[in-house]
Design brief:
The complex is a heterodimer of chains A (about 325) and B (about 625). In chain A, strand 3 and strand 4 form a beta hairpin. Chain A is α+β, with helices and mostly antiparallel strands and about 325 residues long. The model of chain A has no long low-confidence stretch (mean pLDDT about 80). Helix content of chain A is about 65%, strand content about 10%. Chain B is built from 16 helices and 20 strands. In chain B, helix 2 crosses helix 3. Chains A and B meet through strand 5, helix 5, helix 7, helix 8 and helix 9 of A and strand 20, helix 13, helix 14, helix 15 and helix 16 of B.
Chain lengths: ~325, ~625
C-alpha cells in the first residue's frame, strides 16, 4: 500500500516566498502572543496552594469550581482524584494580608478554612484535607534549568550538524528549530493551556522530534548533492523533499497515533504533554517540508560545500 | 545464506531472551505489607511472629503471608503481606496497639517476584510517587547560615589566635556585609604584618588582604576563600542528606528518594507514605549533641539499679545507647553541639584503631580544657539530642509540642588533657567512626532546612494513573503495530516484532538500572514507541525506492539498510543529544522523561535496525530466487 505517489514532484521550493513569509508571520504572531497574553504557567512554576477535598456523596468537578469561584477564589483548577468523591483543588493565593501575613509565608490553615467555607456553603458534606503549599521559588529554579536544557540542546545539535554536515545545515536546522518551538509555544499561549512541567518536557521533546525530521531531509540533500554530477541546488532540494515526503508524513502519522492514544486514554496528568507533542508534530512536519530547505537555499548551499574539499576552503580555515 | 553475519543472529537472540527475563519482574505486582521491627533490644523471633498472627486473627484481618526476615543492615523484622491497602491499614492499626512501644509498625511493600528471577538480579521498576502515591518534600538548606557560622567562628578564632600570639589588636569584628568575612583592626603596620602572617598560617581557608589604613587604624580583611565556601556548602548538603537518611530510615519507607538538587535543595520522596504530618515530624527534627561527664556504663551496678528501680540519682540522667544499653551521665553539659566546628573520621596514629577527630571553637575549647584537666581517666559521654515537634490543632490553634529524645552515641575514658582538637577512640570499626563523625557534624553543623514545597499524592490516584498509562501505552503500541503492518505488509510485521521487543528491552533496561517509573516516564515510553518506528519507516521507504529503481529484492534489502543507516544514525544522535540534555540538566519529571527517552532511542537503534535486519535476513536470505518483496 502506498498513500503517496512516489513520483510526486511538487515544487515546494517554488512556494518558498509564501511559506517562509507565513513562517515569519507565525513566528512574529507567536512572539506577540507569548509576550502579550503570556503563558499560563502552572503551579509548578508559579507556586500556589493545593488542597484536597472529600465529599461523602459524589460530586462533579464543575460544581466544585463554581462553588469556589462564588466563594471568592480566583481561577481554581479542580481535578478529580480518582473516583467521584475526592477532588484536588489548586489555585494561587490572593496577594493580600489575609492570606499572606508579613513574613511572606502563606497561612495554609487560613486558606484551607476559606476553601472549606466556600465548598460547604454549597455542599455541607465537603471536607478539606491536606492543604499544601508549593513555593514559586521552586518554579524559578526549575524554569531556569529548563532554559539551560533548551540552550544545551540547541548548541549540542548545532555542533553535531556542523561537524556531520556543514555550517549552513546547522544554521538552517537551528533557525527552523527556533521557529518550531516559538510557534508551538505560541499555540499554547493562544489557547491558554496551562504550562506546567510536563508541557515543558514535551516542548523539549518537540525539539528532539523536529530536529530528527529535518535531519532526514538534510541527509537526503547531502546524498543527492554528492551523487548528482551537475546539481542545481533548488532542484536537488526539491527532489530531496519529495523523495522523503512519504517517510516524513508516515512517521508523523505513526508518532501522532501514539500521542493521540496518550491524549485520549493517558489520563489528565499527561494531557498537556500529548497536546503539546501533537501541536509540535504538526508544526515540525510542516516546517521540515516548507521552511527548512528554503532557508538552506537562501544560505546558498551548493554541491561544492558537501564534498570533502570543503575542508581546504580558505574561507573555512579562517573560521575559529 | 545471506551476508548477515552469524554472530549478529546470536546477539539478537541473546538480547531478546535477556530482555524478556529482565522485564519479567514488572509483571509481578508487589503485595501491600506491614513491617514490624524492634525499637531497642526487644526480641524479633518466632514468638513475636505468633503474637502478630494471634493479633491479626483476633481482629479478623486476613493476611496473605508472614515471614521473619534477617537483614544485616536493618536488623531482623517481620513482614506480613496483605491483599489490599485497606487490610494493610487496619492491620497496622491493630498491631500498633497490640505490640506497644517496643516495636515499630510501618508500611512496606513485599515483592512477589519469584526467587529464581531475583537470583539473577532481575527486579521490577520502582514506581514514582505519581504512580504509587506518597509524600513529596522539597527542602531548602539555609546556606546563608553556613556562611554566618563560619564568620562567627573565625571572628572568635582570630581573636584568640591574636591573643595567644600576643599581637596587639584594636578590634576583631565580623564585616557588617554578609559574606565579606572578618575585619581585624590593628594599631600599627608592624602588628598588621604579624597578624596577617599568623592568620594566613593558622587558617589556610582564609584570604587575608590589607584594607585601608588611617593613622592608628590598620585594617586587615580576612575573607573565607570561595572554594572553601563551596566545599563547605557541598559538605553541608552531604551532612543534611546523611542526617535525613538516618531519620527517614526510622520511618521504614521502602524506597525513599533523598537527593540533592542544585546546591541548596534536597528532594525527599516517600512513596507509600500517606501521612505527611508524621513524615514532617521526623525529617524536620532538630538535633544537637552534648559532651557530658559519664557517671556509669551498662555494667555498673548503680546503672543497673537505676534501670531496675527507676530511681535516678539527682545529679544524673539515665540515657540509653545505640543498642539500647543504659548509661548514667551527669546533668551538667561540658560542651554542646554549637561549639563543635568539625568532626571527621580517621585512624588513631598510635594504635591504628578507628577514631573521630573533633574540632571545637575557642569557647568550647576552653571549657573542654578545664574539664579534662581535672578528669583524666574518668569517662565522658557524647549524647545525641533530637527534638521533634508534634503539630496538633487544638481549638483551631496550632500547638507545637516538643518531644526530646536522648541517645548516648559514645562513652569513652578521657585519655589526656585536650582543648580545641581531640580524638575520640574506642570505636568498633571505621564504619562506626564515619557514622559517628556524620552524626556529630549532622547533629550540630548542618544548616537549618525549610520545607519549601510539599505535596501528597493519594494511592487511588496512583492506581488510576497506572491503569490509564498502561492503557495508553498498549493502545498506542497496538495502533502503531496495526498501521505499520497494513502499510508495509511483511516488513511492517517485522518492524512490529522489533517494536514490541523495543518496549520489552526498554522496560528491562529501566528495571536493571533502577529508573523510577513516573507518569512523564510513561509519556516518554509512548513517544519512544512512536519514534522507534521511524527507523523502520526509513528502511522500508528505502527498500521500496531501491525496488522501484529496478534492483533485485535481495540487493534492495541490502541497499535499503545500508543507505538508511546513516540517516537513522544522524537523526537518532541529534535526538539523543536532546534526551541527554533533559536527563542531565532537568530535574524531577523532566529528568524521568529524559532518561526514558535516552534509553528508548538507544534500544530502538538496536531493535529497529539490527533486529529487523536479522529477521529479514532469516526470512529472505535462504531463498535464492526471491522474486518480490512484501513491503
Amino acid at each position: 500500500m502506498e498513500i503517496f505517489n512516489h513520483n510526486s514532484n511538487i515544487h515546494f521550493l517554488g512556494l518558498r516566498r509564501y511559506t517562509i513569509g507565513l513562517a515569519i508571520i507565525l513566528v512574529i504572531a507567536s512572539i506577540v502572543l507569548i509576550s502579550v497574553r503570556g503563558l499560563n504557567y502552572g503551579l509548578d512554576f508559579t507556586g500556589g496552594i493545593s488542597v484536597q477535598a472529600q465529599y461523602s456523596q459524589p460530586v462533579q468537578t464543575g460544581k466544585v469550581r463554581d462553588a469556589l469561584v462564588k466563594g471568592g477564589i480566583e481561577d481554581p483548577v479542580v481535578q478529580s482524584l480518582g473516583g467521584t468523591r475526592q477532588v484536588l483543588i489548586r489555585f494561587q493565593p490572593k496577594d493580600d494580608t489575609h492570606n499572606v501575613p508579613k513574613d511572606g509565608k502563606v497561612n495554609l490553615d487560613l486558606v484551607a478554612a476559606d476553601v472549606a467555607k466556600a465548598l460547604q456553603a454549597v455542599r455541607p458534606d465537603a471536607k478539606v484535607v491536606s492543604p499544601s503549599y508549593q513555593s514559586p521559588q521552586v518554579g524559578a529554579e526549575l524554569r531556569s534549568s529548563g532554559v539551560y536544557a533548551a540552550v544545551f540542546v540547541i548548541i549540542g545539535i548545532g555542533l553535531y550538524l556542523w561537524i556531520r554536515f556543514e555550517r549552513r545545515f546547522a544554521i538552517a536546522a537551528l533557525v527552523t528549530e527556533v521557529h518550531d518551538v516559538l510557534v508551538t509555544l505560541g499555540v499554547i499561549a493562544l489557547v491558554q493551556r496551562q504550562f506546567d512541567l510536563t508541557v515543558l518536557a514535551s516542548v523539549l521533546a518537540v525539539i528532539g522530534y523536529s530536529i530528527n525530521d529535518k535531519v532526514v531531509v538534510f541527509d537526503r540533500i547531502r546524498e543527492l548533492f554528492r551523487l548528482a554530477r551537475k546539481a542545481e541546488p533548488e532542484e536537488v532540494l526539491n527532489r530531496s523533499i519529495n523523495s522523503t515526503l512519504s517517510r516524513t508524513i508516515i512517521t508523523s502519522l505513526f508518532t501522532g497515533i501514539a500521542m493521540a492514544a496518550l491524549f485520549f486514554f493517558g489520563g489528565p496528568s499527561v494531557h498537556g504533554f500529548a497536546v503539546t507533542m501533537l501541536i509540535g508534530i504538526v508544526v515540525g512536519t510542516l516546517s521540515s517540508i516548507f521552511v527548512a530547505s528554503p532557508i538552506l537555499l537562501w544560505l546558498g548551499v551548493s554541491k561544492k560545500d558537501l564534498m570533502p574539499v570543503t575542508k581546504e576552503n580558505p574561507e573555512l580555515a579562517r573560521r575559529p | 545464506m545471506s551476508d548477515f553475519p552469524r554472530w549478529k543472529y546470536a546477539l539478537v537472540a541473546i538480547v531478546m531472551v535477556l530482555g524478556i527475563l529482565y522485564a519479567l519482574p514488572n509483571a509481578f505486582v508487589p503485595l501491600s505489607a506491614v513491617q514490624v521491627s524492634a525499637v531497642h533490644n526487644a526480641p524479633v523471633d518466632a514468638a513475636l511472629e505468633q503474637k502478630v498472627v494471634a493479633t491479626l486473627q483476633k481482629d479478623k484481618i486476613a493476611y496473605k503471608n508472614i515471614s521473619l526476615k534477617h537483614n544485616k543492615a536493618k536488623g531482623d523484622y517481620i513482614l506480613i503481606g496483605f491483599a489490599n491497602g485497606d487490610l494493610q491499614n487496619s492491620a497496622a492499626d491493630s498491631l500498633k496497639t497490640a505490640l506497644g512501644e517496643d516495636y515499630t509498625v510501618v508500611f512496606n511493600l513485599e515483592s512477589t517476584v519469584p526467587g529464581w528471577l531475583q537470583a539473577i538480579g532481575a527486579r521490577s521498576m520502582p514506581l514514582g510517587l505519581d504512580l504509587q502515591g506518597g509524600v513529596h518534600f522539597l527542602m531548602k538548606v539555609d546556606q546563608r547560615d553556613v556562611v554566618n557560622k563560619q564568620e562567627i567562628r573565625y571572628t572568635e578564632d582570630i581573636t584568640s589566635l591574636l591573643r595567644d600570639k600576643k599581637i596587639h589588636y584594636t578590634s576583631v569584628t565580623r564585616n557588617s556585609i554578609h559574606g565579606k568575612g572578618v575585619v581585624v583592626v590593628l594599631p600599627t603596620a608592624a602588628d598588621r604584618t604579624a597578624a596577617s602572617d599568623a592568620i594566613a598560617t593558622a587558617f589556610t581557608d582564609l584570604d587575608v588582604s590589607d584594607g585601608p589604613s588611617t593613622g592608628d587604624r590598620f585594617v586587615l580583611d580576612a575573607v573565607v576563600k570561595p572554594e572553601a565556601l563551596r566545599k563547605l556548602a557541598q559538605a553541608t548538603i552531604t551532612q543534611n542528606l546523611a542526617t535525613l537518611r538516618n531519620r527517614i530510615n526510622a520511618l521504614g519507607v521502602s524506597e525513599p528518594v533523598i537527593q540533592a538538587q542544585g546546591n541548596d535543595q534536597i528532594v525527599v520522596d516517600l512513596a507509600g507514605v500517606q501521612d505527611p504530618a508524621e513524615a514532617k515530624r521526623v525529617i524536620g527534627a532538630i538535633a544537637t549533641l552534648q559532651y557530658v561527664a559519664g557517671l556509669g556504663g551498662p555494667s555498673d551496678p548503680a546503672v543497673q539499679d537505676a534501670v531496675r528501680t527507676g530511681i535516678v540519682p539527682p545529679n544524673a540522667h539515665l540515657y540509653y545507647g545505640t543498642h539500647g544499653e543504659p548509661y548514667l551521665v551527669s546533668k551538667r553539659v561540658i560542651v554542646s553541639g554549637e561549639e563543635l566546628v568539625d568532626a571527621s573520621s580517621g585512624t588513631d596514629p598510635d594504635n591504628g584503631s578507628p577514631s573521630v577527630n573533633v574540632t571545637l571553637n575557642s569557647v568550647g575549647a576552653k571549657k573542654m580544657l578545664d574539664f579534662t584537666r581535672d578528669n583524666v581517666g574518668k569517662p565522658m559521654a557524647v549524647v545525641y539530642v533530637e527534638t521533634v515537634y508534634d503539630n496538633k490543632v487544638v481549638d483551631g490553634k496550632e500547638v507545637r509540642t516538643p518531644k526530646v529524645k536522648y541517645k548516648v552515641i559514645n562513652y569513652a575514658t578521657i585519655q589526656g588533657v585536650f582543648s580545641n582538637k581531640f580524638q575520640t577512640n574506642g570505636l568498633g570499626s571505621p564504619k562506626e567512626a564515619s557514622e559517628l563523625a556524620l552524626l556529630l557534624k549532622g547533629g550540630s553543623l548542618a544548616a537549618p532546612m525549610d520545607i519549601v514545597a510539599q505535596s501528597v499524592i493519594g494511592p487511588s490516584m496512583g492506581k488510576q494513573n497506572i491503569s490509564k498509562g498502561l492503557d495508553a501505552v498498549l493502545l498506542g503500541l497496538g495502533l502503531v503495530l496495526v498501521a505499520a503492518a497494513i502499510y508495509y505488509k511483511l516488513f511492517g510485521l517485522v518492524a512490529d516484532i522489533a517494536l514490541f521487543f523495543n518496549l520489552v528491552i526498554l522496560v528491562a533496561v529501566m528495571s536493571m538500572i533502577g529508573v523510577t517509573l513516573t507518569m512523564p516516564g510513561i509519556a516518554g515510553i509512548v513517544l519512544t514507541l512512536g519514534m522507534a518506528i521511524d527507523a523502520n519507516v526509513l528502511i522500508c521507504e528505502r527498500v521500496r525506492e531501491e525496488l522501484r529503481n529496478g534492483s533485485t529484492p535481495l540487493a534492495s534489502i541490502r541497499a535499503g539498510y545500508e543507505k538508511a543507516w546513516s540517516t537513522i544514525l544522524d537523526a537518532n544522535v541529534t535526538h539523543l543529544i536532546a534526551a541527554l540534555a533533559l536527563m542531565t540538566i532537568g530535574s524531577g519529571a523532566i529528568r524521568g522523561f529524559g532518561v526514558t527517552l535516552f534509553i528508548g532511542i538507544s534500544t530502538s537503534l538496536f531493535t529497529s535496525v539490527t533486529m529487523t535486519h536479522a529477521i529479514t535476513a532469516l526470512l529472505h536470505g535462504g531463498r535464492k530466487k526471491l522474486k518480490t518483496l512484501s513491503v
